[in-house]
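Bumping with the actual sequence this time:
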Amino acid sequence: MSDQDFTTRITVRGYETDSQGHLNQAVYLQYAEHARWEYLRAAGIRQTDLVAKGVGPVVLETTVKYLRELRAGDSVEVGCSFTWRDGKTFQVVQRLVREDGVLAAEITGVGGILDLAERRLVADPREPLRELADDPGLLGL
């Protein structure tokens, strides 16, 4: 059982690997991005809903710890948790866990919600997400 608030499963595709047969480092970030969007979607927030409201999530900082390799055909559970705090930003923690239970990578970051007209972070990132979500509790809101 994962300690993440949300998880989605992805199978590593051969074309995503490098010449050594490892998952390309940039694809870890794509998997993390996919999991974040799936998490929002599970809470009832679609990308089009955010755009219609005039806001969008932004990544401000990302750190990746590569711990074990992922290879073509591996099934990986990509988790996601948001930690809400005072101010304009929130923390994101994501773990990529192989089917055998081995932690392959940990991705931590800082995110915010951008006002698309003003091009500035909204004062409280929880507010627009809470308004749009069908299930704000899933996001810890």
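The tokens above came from a reply further down the thread. The two ends are 22 Å apart (CA to CA).
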